[in-house]
Amino acid sequence: xxxxxxxxxxxxYGPNKFLxxxxxxxxxxxxxxxxxxxxxxxxxxxxxxxxADMIDPVNVVMSSYxxxxxxxxxxxxxxxxxxPDCVIVTGGPQIxxxxxxxxxxxxxxxxxxxxxGENAMKEILARPIGDYDDIVHTQTxxxxxxxxxxxxxxxxxxxxxxxxxxEPIMAKYPKDTMWQVTWESLRxxxxxxxxxxxxxxxxxxxxxxxxxxxxxxxxxxxxNKIEYVSVCDSNWGLLKRDVELTQMVLDTKEKYGYPMWFxxxxxxxxxxxxxxxALMNKKAPVNIFKGVTFAMQSFNDTTLVASERFNIxxxxxxxxxxxxxxxxxxTYSELIWPMPEETYDxxxxxxxxxxxLGQDSYLMIHxxxxxxxATMGDSKxxxxxxMGVKEIPLDTFYLRDTDMEKYIFEYTGAVVSTRTADWNTVxxxxxxxxxxxxxxxxxxxxxxAKYLSKQGIRxxxxxxxxxxxxxxxxxxxxxxxxxxxxxHHIDTYYNQKxxxxxxxxxxxxxxxxxxxxxxxxxxxKEQYSKELVMFLKECYNIKYAEEAVSLNLAxxxxxxxxxxxxxxxxxxVANDMLGxxxxxxxxxxxxxxxxDPQLWYQKAYHWDRKSRYWRCTAQANDK
Length: 623
Ligand code: SF4
Prior knowledge:
This protein has 22 helices and 21 strands. α8 (241-256) links the parallel β11 (226-231) and β12 (261-263).
């Protein structure tokens, strides 16, 4: 028998370990009796150390995507150095199906599989070593395949879970390892978003695994105490059966206490079914979802056309955001910047639109990154929309220096300019995003924005005026936060420096920038509040600036404050800001458990930020 190694490497985050899906399918479908599976690698050990422990590898198969591509290339180089005759096969979304020069660029690979890999893998493992030309979907130095065709059915692909593929992997780790499994009930997506790999026509049809298989897999997750299920389905809630599958997961968690979390990408256009699913989760005795996404990406018509994105209509968004609010179910929205045809003004309009539609919980504005097989990965598309793309490091947020010792950094293509936004505009857009999210969705100006909107000042005008005021006032704490954030963006986009910023000494994690500034503003509230009052007086000359700032900050969870507490304020401010007609308020927060002071920052501005941890409640205290 020949020795084979399977590689689907991922970064380690604390005690979590990741059970791979793609490589598992390849093996479970493709294996035959000529092969001895020696190891499945799920982490990123130093390549030379891993290769030193290998035993006569004849075939090494690597699943490649942006989070392990550099690692795979270095591991493949090392394997070839020590075992020049070993065949190295790679596949996955990172393999550019258009690239005829693939093997010139990456000479350590022998075979590259395009699209779904199971049939190719079966054939590769069945053929004599090296005889790989003319295999479906398979590129070699001497053979470029025809465009890959999707499988008509996936029913014949065995379940890695039910085949026992994960047991030997799990047996190598301590019993208290927190396992994350990647899982899918179907493949494909009916939409065509140009920024997404799955938007390619190749993935347009849905293929489904049967319900009984899914049920047994979910049961396994419960029995095996799976902490986190990373669901690969592109649109949870798209099919009616997703309701039934959700019920299975809820029942399983009720029975076994696991899986703890079920992280699904919510369907874009099935808001009614999504709401039913979220409500089921809320009413169940256990909770498996952290919130519901409204991923809009943009509201700008020309951008939506350019990116082939079709959003649900705005009335529906408003109606369902209201329903979620009534049920107190957290939702969050996503935008992407800088999308093709987007301008600085249209970015501001996107944020305002979300606020107007009622998105009060959380917003993420992701930088636009390019993957090879997405429509936007095509150079013709990039030329049409004047897109400038630079290689930048993949984000390293929330890692520590100790996580990055001997770390092999991963990179991705990021858009730095378009024909409607040059780099300075793109950077300004990042900074506008920083101000608006820090203010509205981390709470530092959330209620103030509501108060100002009662005075006729739109939320985004407040954020933009504040952004300009910060730039004009270099002696302020806000400026130093702004400047640090801006410089980090420049360094990452132009000097390939890592993402993230430490704020609590050398041993700190690398915070995402809004979280970093949130920690600083929280710890310097007095200074921050003085600056905000100054800004309000200079820019708007509003009545009750001090009272408005003070009440806004009282509504943000403070690490040292005992809850509840009584807050005396101005009745007019309380009314305009909170809709409470009283000058004496009882401010409270649901979380009264002791938590280590350093971990508190992570809870408030990292783990629980999307569920609005920052937000206190208020009621009249007229006793
Ligand atoms: S972004 Fe989502 S909806 Fe759009 S193509 Fe990709 S998976 Fe489908």
